[in-house]
Amino acid sequence: MSRFTFPPSIHSRPVYGTLSPRKGSGHLMIADAEGAEALLGLARADAALMASAHVIFIPRDTGNRYVTQLQAAAPAVLHIGASYDASVPRIRRVLADTVMGAQIYLAGTEGLIGQAMNEALNAGIPLAAIQTEHRGSVARRVQCVHCKGITEDVTTDPFTCSHCGLNLFVRDHYSRRLAAFQGVCIDAEDPGNVPPPVELYS
Amino acid sequence: MTIQFNDETFRDDYTFRNSDWAIRRFPFPFHEDSYMYSVNMEQHRGGPAGSVFEKRFDVDEHYISEMRDRALVLAEDPLRCQSLPHMNLAGWDLLELIMVSKSEDYPDLFELHRKGDKWRWVNKPLGMDDTFTFMDDASLPYGPMEYITRQAQGDFAVLDQRENNLWMDAGMVTTQADWSLDFDIGMNFFEWHAPVPLAHEMGVFKRALKFLLNIQQGGPARRLNWTMTVNPLLDTSPENYHKWGVQKTTLTPENIGRKQHLRVELQTFYRLPRSNALVFPIRCYLIALDDLVTMPKWGRRLHRVIRDLPDELATYKGFINNRPLILDYLAQYDDGKPTSPGIWPDPDREPPLEK
């Protein structure tokens, strides 16, 4: 099962929904890894939707597990991205072409949803035209408040900043502009006293 | 009165001191012997002569040294001052508000001469005499918000108003109680307050937002907020927490009176005329416990407030570990006598300590 129920949290923390087909002048779908399952759900709910859909899918560690199924759903365009970063120029280009009334569907990890959401908003897409659905890994994208470096796919709390090496605890405070949670030094008041990392949500 | 400006530091050797004048006018934030969140807003239309509420933008003996500290923070980390592109007009609004207010309220310290859009600004304490074209960015050495807030004590959050919400879209933040402008910029009112415990459930932020959205031009408001800071460190930023956090562990019964400071924010709110933005100056005042307890009423009351504060608030405000030490110290200044209502020290009416 690729769905996870996030515990209740503070106001800045994003909440995700369930993708549902909407009428629109065009459909841009961006997903990574298990996020493909949410797109396949859309295709099952409304097969006609896919005929006007541009799909950008980043498999990450799922290999070809979803690629064949996505091809079978017959979207108008299916692009398989090597990584999120590698897909950004294409995402920007496609968003620039998006016409009034288009619908955006984002699915997969929080890192992908947050970053693609930023791209869409920066391109002038109204929030109301963007749907999100979390699927797969609950890893977080975290900004170190000290060095400003972003560490992708953080799965434990605390963790070590991949840029400056400080031991950071992961706050639920979230910046949509950065598409990242906030990481703060955990042993500032007692240097060296770092509790053993535990899996997030454990 | 003519202000005697201190030459002092808010870091390293911490030579910051409050004069007797500064102690007497300290904005003690507790009007009764207990504290809980509330939307404690009032109109910002002056106050008793000599108080920090009297002028629109209070200037005190720490002015020059605070501006020097701000320049040091910005040199280390320019991200403490940011403005999203649509906030430039609000920056000019803010520049005008501060220049007009300061030149009218402190004519011996600041002068503003306007001929059309040709403006001359004289800041005597900082030794500045600049001529520029109003609304022309190229005529100033910094953006308008940065230029003027390098010359005004306190942090400044400039809030855009849209969709029935306030958005933290610009700011100058170098004397903050542990929050990051760089992280929070672009957030709405509920998002940037998200980490605050208890207050959301109490409906405080919904009521506060409703109040703030309705602030009109010429009708500014104010409130006080507070926390505790070890050493007179203005820059208690999350960015530098890995450097200053350890200072919180240096308190001893011998040094606590000098090192532990009550940190009070005088928060004011002004509607800006052209941009319809709201500017939210957050002015920080620090006082060492040794100085605070020279006012018997404040010593008694602070002991009772800190003693009875819910753990969640002491944790959020960052002094839960030091609370026992603080209480041991403050207990010496609480003889159980009643205190008079209100924040003023009432030194002539309040009974001396009987211990």
Automatic annotation (TrEMBL), chain A:
Every Dimethylamine monooxygenase subunit DmmA-like N-terminal domain range: 9-129
Record keywords, A-Z: 2Fe-2S, Flavoprotein, Iron, Iron-sulfur, Metal-binding, Monooxygenase, Oxidoreductase
Keyword Iron-sulfur part of the UniProt annotation: yes
MF GO annotations: monooxygenase activity
Dimethylamine monooxygenase subunit DmmA-like C-terminal domain span: 141-184
One Pfam family matching this protein: DmmA-like_N
Top-rank taxon: Bacteria
Full protein name: Dimethylamine monooxygenase subunit DmmA family protein
From TrEMBL, chain B:
InterPro entries: HODM_asu-like (IPR021848)
Organism: Roseinatronobacter alkalisoli
The protein's name: DUF3445 domain-containing protein
Domain of life from the UniProt record: Bacteria
